[in-house]
Design goal:
- The structure is a single chain.
- By secondary structure, this protein is mainly α.
- It has one domain.
- About 75% of the residues lie in helices and about 0% in strands.
- Keywords: Membrane, Transmembrane, Transmembrane helix.
- Pfam families: DUF1189.
- It comes from Lederbergia galactosidilytica.
Amino acid sequence: MRKISIYTLFYKSIYSFKDLAKFRFLDIGKTIKYVFILATIYFAPAIIKLLLIDRDFSQLSTNFDKGSLAIIVPIYLIFTYVLYSGLLFIKISFIALIALLFAKGLKRTLPYRNAWRLTAFSITLPTILFGFFPLFNIEIPYGILYDFAISIIYIMLAISKMPRVKK
């Protein structure tokens, strides 16, 4: 399980609930690396839209010339990426608490550290979907609720594939 590639993790996190349940045993370093790569994939459409499609720096360039923008735009992008990553980590931590409640309700043993790892892999599909929607100018009302709902459904299905507690 340790030599599994990030690509395999990404691919299997989208469709295989049984593998999601197994991924909870991966080391935390690989999981955090996966979350940063997921944050990069989530942030990439926003960068593409800002830099290539819209080329609209009006919210940044109120009193700046072109030379200053060459410095400010990369700083803005780095700051935004750090913000996106932080929000993704907070989202994972919050949903992991919900996963603990589901595990308890389904009579499965799931420590928080494993719930956090399971959640990190379970949010792959909704994170990718809702990351790419702005690129295509698709706005979904209450999108964050759908994002959480899909994530929680994935976690419930993954927890249901875990073995029950033996008495």
